Amino acid sequence: MATWDDVRRIVLDLPETSERTSRGLARWQVKEKLLTWERPLRQPDFQALGDAAPDGDILAVWVEDLGVKEALLYDDPDVFFTTPHFDGHAVVLIRLAAIQVDELEELIIEAWLDRAPKRVAAEYLKAEE
Hints:
Elements: H1 4-12, E1 17-22, E2 25-30, E3 33-38, H2 43-49, E4 58-62, H3 66-75, E5 80-81, E6 91-95, H4 101-115, H5 118-128
Helix pairs in contact: 1-4
């Protein structure tokens, strides 16, 4: 089970990341690109999801493309979901309490690699070899 402290630690351990608050909600960026953010459900989300609307903390994270998003939604619907608001966007919503920390770390690093400047991502990958 992951927590906001896990999200914060994972993201801020990556190069050139920062944490900001917008409307009282945490959001993490690499340079000026949004990477992942706290995303509580809103009234239209509850209406769209009905009884399937989850309780608890929800994290939104960019994924590489819509194919990755669809695969995550299909492979583990107890962890990953979406709402009509994100239709057409390579963003997946995560039930934070349902995801294992190692899986969360993998998703955040993949999102970071996709959104970070290419030079910074290449340096990171070289250092990880």
